[in-house]
Design a protein that fits this description.
Membrane-bound Lytic Murein Transglycosylase D, Chain A, about 20% strand, 17 strands, about 40% helix, globular, single chain, alpha+beta, four-stranded antiparallel β-sheet, Protein Transport Mog1p, Chain A, about 500 residues, 3 domains, seven-stranded antiparallel β-sheet
């Protein structure tokens, strides 16, 4: 969630969400075109020959700026961007589309994810880079995404989109914006409804092939898939989501029980052309000093809690929900179809009660049985609950409006797929947690960075973990996630490892 002072280049339109009062989410792959596939040309060339790679490049170019803005902008760190570009081009050069103008972008997002758009646009988050332990693992991710591009899965994928959800429809009504109506499709398309099982298998197989041809160990892809599984378990424990759902890489790249095994088998069946020129330390040196976790300028997610230092407020998501921060709003989802959206809107008429604001401006187009005036965090507020039907489906909504001052309103929208009193109570506990922070508390929230260190003689695991920044309650779990080699015991002195420190 971006501060209202964000630059025009970062937002695309030059108008921050605070001034718009709407949630404007881009469609990441908003095309549905059948397409020829050089990676399986013998099957599809004659059927879809009308669609050429030029179409793919146009599609990718159209969506690129909006995708980058949605993920907090491009992350720039001297040496790191060129390093990732070199690895990506090394893999793309051995693919069936080596002549594409490939583009590899690091996104300023703590979310562990990677994806691609048609035409050679490949994206990887700094959150994923922090999780990887060597160049080969990153190469495995990039090779997989290159496989999606060469197999031309982007067009096929969009045809599986679920359409605008009820939450998106409601938000569109509340804001009067068609763009906000894309929330359901965004959550369904980018975070939930990923590639098909067959598409993932195909991208895995192509990626394994590209790894070997580029001189990397082919098993690197399976190795990193195991790392992603560990990250999913970690996030589930962090958010209290016993279902183990993760709204990152495995959400947009559905996991199957045998995917890792298949990738391993594919690697074993092919001969390696290993290039030993890359080393683990080269990668670790490249990510040294990289921002870790959330960028405080965009707001901080700590478990279920969201804190925004520049705007000086905080709240937490309902139990079992995972927060997702964007440049426009804050979202929270669970594994059962329940959702939350938070933003800050503006009043047309300042000085009115929150009940009047809800009735006359925010809920004017909704038939709401009643609106309750209340106080949240010491500020005037209003709460309403109602149900809506759409396309034969019924959903249950809770909305809360809190006076943020200066004509601004903090707004919560919760959607439940069933009339569950327990879930309703969790929604109430969530919006009731909204508080403004003092200047001193906001100033204490500092950015964290990835720092490379080495095991010193006499170091214990407890000592190393104790020196980490207190960004999570269970620092040991985070350390082992970042450094799986330590799960087998203390390595010898001189062994490099990743830790997290607070920056300036």
């Amino acid at each position: 969630m971006t501060n209202s002072g964000i630059s025009a280049s970062a937002m695309g339109s030059g108008r921050g969400w605070l001034r718009r009062g709407v949630l404007a989410l881009p469609l990441v792959c908003a095309v549905a075109l059948p397409a020829a596939n050089p990676a399986k040309a013998d099957i599809l060339d004659n059927v879809f020959s009308i669609f050429q790679p030029d179409n793919d490049r146009e599609i990718g170019a159209q969506q690129h700026d909006r995708v980058v803005a949605q993920y907090g902008g491009e992350y720039i760190q001297p040496g790191l961007n060129d390093y990732i570009l070199d690895v990506g081009l090394r893999l793309a050069f051995v693919s069936e589309m080596r002549d594409l103008p490939w583009r590899f972008t690091i996104l300023n997002s703590p979310v562990v994810n990677a994806f691609a758009l048609p035409g050679g646009y490949v994206y990887i988050t700094r959150g994923l880079l922090a999780l990887a332990n060597n160049e080969a693992e990153v190469a495995g991710v990039l090779a997989h995404e290159i496989g999606h591009v060469t197999a031309r899965h982007g067009a096929e994928r969009q045809s599986r989109a679920t359409g605008v959800g009820l939450l998106g429809a409601l938000a569109g009504i509340l804001t009067g914006s068609q763009a906000i109506g894309q929330i359901g499709q965004q959550l369904g398309g980018l975070y939930v409804a990923g590639y098909s099982r067959d598409q993932e298998y195909e991208a895995d197989q192509l990626g394994v092939k590209y790894l070997g041809l580029a001189g990397y160990p082919r098993e690197a892809m399976a190795d990193f898939l195991k790392r992603m599984e560990a990250q999913t378990r970690y996030m589930a424990a962090l958010t209290g989501n016993s279902a183990g759902g993760s709204f990152d890489f495995f959400a947009s790249h559905p996991q199957t029980a045998d995917r890792v095994g298949r990738a391993s088998a594919s690697a074993s069946a092919q001969s390696d052309n290993l290039d030993r020129t890359y080393e683990k330390n080269r990668y670790l040196d490249a990510i040294n000093g990289m921002l870790y976790g959330d960028d405080p300028k965009e707001g901080i997610i700590r478990g279920r809690e969201f804190l925004h230092p520049p705007l000086r407020f905080k709240f937490h998501a309902p139990q079992g929900f995972q927060l997702i921060n964007s440049s426009n709003a804050v979202y929270a989802v669970d594994g059962n179809g329940n959702q939350m959206v938070f933003d800050i809107g503006t009043q047309k008429s300042t000085g009115q009660s929150m009940s009047n604001y809800m009735k006359r401006e925010w809920l004017a187009k909704i038939d709401v049985p009643s609106i309750s005036a209340t106080e949240i965090g010491g500020a005037p507020a209003a709460v309403a609950r109602f149900a809506l039907n759409q396309n034969g489906r019924r959903a249950y909504f809770t909305v809360a409006a809190i006076d943020f001052g200066d004509g601004r309103v903090a707004r919560f929208i919760y959607q439940a797929v069933s009339n569950d009193s327990g879930l309703s109570s969790r929604f109430t506990e969530s919006f009731s947690s909204f508080r403004k922070m003092g200047a001193a508390e906001a100033a204490e929230i500092r950015p964290a960075t990835v720092v490379m260190e080495t095991v010193q003689q006499g170091d214990s695991l407890e000592q190393i973990i104790g020196r980490m920044a207190n960004i999570v309650e269970d620092k040991k779990a985070l350390f082992l996630l970042l450094n799986p080699a330590f799960e087998q015991g203390m390595p010898p002195a001189g062994q490099p490892y990743k830790t997290v420190r607070y920056g300036a």
